[in-house]
Amino acid sequence: MKTTGGSDDQKRRAAERAAELVSSGETVGLGTGSTTAFAIRALGRAVDGGLDVRGVPTSFASRELARDVGIPLASLDEVASVDIAIDGADRLDADLNLIKGGGAAHAREKIVAAAASRFVVVADPSKVAETLDRSVPLEVLPDARTVVAGAVEELGGDPELRRAERKDGPVVTDNGNLVLDCEFGRIADPASLAADLSATPGVVEHGLFVGLADEAYVGTDDGVDVRR
Ligand code: 5RP
Fold it and tell me: Where along the chain is substrate bound (predicted)?
């Protein structure tokens, strides 16, 4: 999986501490991204050691990794609830509001996070900001791309279709949709912008996670900073 932002050691520290929160008998939401991948690997080792859990992956990539490391899996539609979800973030503010979707998986990530009794964010210090200040990914129905882009401009944003790095074409999500990365500058009122984006027809899901995270584990060079 692609590595972004802070060091792998910082990410690993955060993710391994979060994985220790999981108990036998629990259903665990498995987020997506390079930080969460460390948690999935740690859970795989714990399963080898006797931990009895089932994982609910939030993307094709996390499903493949979880399967490789031996975590028993259930799909989202097979579970009524999730005990704990562990996932990364692209930005994390002081109120634990997030911008997610760097891996274009935020639609399923949000469903799993919202279904979880406990949602734990794992991150490195490069993700932490006073105010959310990064472009917001929108998963959009392919046919709605142009009208959603117009609606984003009316909200004061600057939308850009996400393109695949090594292919000549757009990024297509696991759900067969496109991603618009929308620059809004510093987002002073994430709840208000989230409501406007949710109300825009054609938006399958946006990457603002407002009021969902219960705690954040931020890996540093010598430990883990726990934020609640
Ligand atoms: C995927 C996500 C990721 O959790 C987010 O992009 C952080 O990824 P990483 O841990 O690789 O920095 O939201 O949709």
Answer: 32-35, 87-90, 100-103, 127
- pLDDT tens digit sequence for 146-158: 999 999 999 999 9
Q: How confident is the model at residue 169 (pLDDT cuts 50, 70, 90)?
A: very high
- Same domain, residue pair 37 and 145: no
Tell whether ligand 1 has an atom less than 6 A from the beta carbon of residue 29: no
Residues 78 and 144 in one domain: no
For ligand 1, atom 6, name the residue with the nearest CA: 102
For residue 57, CA distances in Å to 43, 53, 54, 62 come to: 13, 13, 10, 6
State the burial class of residue 189 (Cβ atoms within 10 Å of its Cβ: 0-12, 13-18, 19+): exposed
- Confirm whether 1 is domain-assigned: no
pLDDT in tens, 53-82: 999 999 999 999 999 999 999 998 999 899
- Same domain (yes/no): 166, 93: no
109 is annotated as an active-site residue: yes
Determine the Cα–Cα distance for residues 35 and 20; give it in Å rounded to an integer: 15
Annotated binding site for substrate: 32-35, 87-90, 100-103, 127
Q: Which protein residue's CA is at the shortest distance from atom 8 of ligand 1?
A: 33
| Inside any domain, residue 22 | yes
Distance 216 CA to ligand 1 centre (A): 14
> pLDDT by residue (tens digit) across 103-146?
999 999 999 999 999 999 999 999 999 999 999 999 999 999 99
Owning domain of residue 73: 8-129+211-221
Enter the ipTM. 0.98
Q: In this structure, is residue 2 part of a structural domain? A: no
Residue whose CA is closest, atom 5 of ligand 1?
89
Residue 158 shares a structural domain with residue 101:
no
